[in-house]
Specification:
There is one protein chain. By secondary structure, this protein is mainly alpha-helical. The chain has 2 domains: about 210 residues, Cation efflux protein transmembrane domain (Alpha-lytic protease prodomain-like, Up-down Bundle); about 110 residues, Alpha-Beta Plaits. Helix content is about 65%, strand content about 10%. Helix 2 packs antiparallel against helix 5, helix 3 packs antiparallel against helix 4 and helix 4 runs parallel beside helix 6. It is elongated and about 85 Å long.
Length: about 325
C-alpha cells in the first residue's frame, strides 16, 4: 500500500470513534429511561431490558477503546497494523451479552417462582418506548457506518442495539399482555425468552470474532474478484498460484506467486507486480497485496502450490504430474 493511501486509511479509521461516542451517549440515555420504567412498574421484563442496556454501555466503551487502538499506524512491533484490535471489542461484547443473558434468565426464574403484580404500566411502557426509539435510531446509523467502513466493531454494536430493540418490543408486548390479562407469570416468561434471544446474539458475536482472530480467508465473492483481476494477465503469458488471503477487520491481506517467462528482466517483473497490486487494490480497497515473482520453467517455482512448502523434499512423480496438469 502506498504511503498516501495508508495515511488516508488511518485518518478514516480514527474518525470512527465518533460513532462509539454516539453509542455511549445512547446507552446512558436508555439506561436512565429503562431503569425509570422498571422502577415505575416493577416488571422483571423491563428489568431485563435495562440490564441489556448496561451491557450496551460497557460494549460501547470497549468499542471506543479498540477503535482508537485499531486506528494506530503500523509500528516496529505491529508491522501489519492494529486493525485486529476490533475483534477483541466484538469478542468482549459477545461475552458481556452472554453474562447479561444468564443474569436475566436467573432473575426471571426467581420471579417465576414468586410472581408479583406490575404497576403504573402505561407510564412505564411510554418511557420504555422512548428508550427503544433512541436505540433504533442509533442502531441504523451504526449499521450504515459499519458497512461503509468495514468495521466489525460498529457492526457488532449495531446488531446488539437492534437485538435490544427487538427485545424491548417483546418485553413491551409481554408487559402489555400482563396488564390486560392479569397473568403475572407471563412477565418472567417473556424475560426468559429475551434471555434466550440475547444468548444467541452473544454466541454469534463470539464466533465471528474467533474466526477473525484465526486469520480466516476472505469471502469467496471477494476472492473471485481477485482471480478476475489476475486472469486478465494470462494473455501476457503470466500465470499465478499460491493465492492466499486473510482479513483483519477492515484490512485485507492477499499474497500471490506470479510466474513469468524466464526471459523477462527484473524490471519487467517488477512493473507487472506493481500493476497487478494496483489493480487488486482498486478492486478491493484497503487491501495489502504481496507478490512473489517466479520463473515459469524452474521446477522449484511449482513446489509451493500447496499451502506449506517443504524445501528439502524432492519433486516427486505425483508432484510432477500435478505440475503438468496445472500448466
Amino acid at each position: 500500500m502506498k504511503p498516501q493511501r495508508e495515511t488516508a486509511h488511518i485518518m478514516e479509521r480514527g474518525s470512527l470513534t465518533r460513532f462509539a461516542w454516539l453509542a455511549i451517549a445512547a446507552a446512558i440515555i436508555t439506561i436512565g429511561l429503562k431503569v425509570t420504567a422498571y422502577t415505575l412498574t416493577g416488571s422483571v421484563g423491563l428489568l431485563s431490558d435495562a440490564l441489556e442496556s448496561l451491557v450496551n454501555l460497557a460494549a460501547a466503551i470497549m468499542a471506543l477503546a479498540m477503535l482508537t487502538v485499531a486506528a494506530r499506524p503500523p509500528d516496529a512491533d505491529h508491522t501489519y497494523g492494529h486493525s485486529k484490535a476490533e475483534y477483541f471489542s466484538s469478542a468482549i461484547e459477545g461475552l458481556l451479552i452472554l453474562v447479561a443473558a444468564i443474569s436475566i434468565g436467573w432473575t426471571a426464574w426467581s420471579r417465576m417462582m414468586s410472581p408479583q403484580p406490575i404497576e403504573q404500566v402505561g407510564l412505564g411502557l411510554a418511557v420504555s418506548i422512548a428508550a427503544s426509539l433512541v436505540n433504533l435510531a442509533v442502531a441504523q446509523i451504526l449499521i450504515r457506518a459499519g458497512k461503509r467502513y468495514r468495521s466489525i466493531t460498529l457492526e457488532a454494536d449495531a446488531h446488539h442495539l437492534m437485538t435490544d430493540v427487538w427485545t424491548s418490543i417483546g418485553v413491551l408486548i409481554g408487559v402489555g399482555l400482563v396488564w390486560l390479562t392479569g397473568w403475572n407469570q407471563l412477565d418472567p416468561i417473556i424475560a426468559m425468552l429475551v434471555a434466550a434471544n440475547i444468548l444467541w446474539s452473544g454466541v454469534q458475536l463470539v464466533r465471528r470474532s474467533a474466526l477473525g482472530l484465526m486469520d480466516t480467508a476472505l469471502p469467496e465473492v471477494e476472492l473471485a474478484l481477485v482471480r478476475k483481476v489476475l486472469d486478465t494477465y494470462t494473455a501476457r503469458g503470466v500465470q499465478y498460484h499460491a493465492l492466499r488471503s486473510r482479513q483483519a477487520a477492515a484490512r485485507r491481506f492477499v499474497s500471490i506467486h506470479l510466474l513469468v517467462p524466464d526471459s523477462w528482466t527484473i524490471q519487467q517483473g517488477h512493473n507487472l507486480a506493481e500493476e497487478i497490486e494496483g489493480a487488486i487494490c482498486r478492486t478491493l480497497p484497503h487491501t495489502t497485496v504481496f507478490t512473489h515473482l517466479e520463473p515459469q520453467d524452474d521446477p522449484a517455482s511449482w513446489y509451493d502450490i500447496a499451502l506449506d512448502r517443504d524445501d528439502d523434499a524432492p519433486l516427486s512423480i505425483s508432484s510432477s504430474i500435478q505440475i503438468e496438469e496445472y500448466r
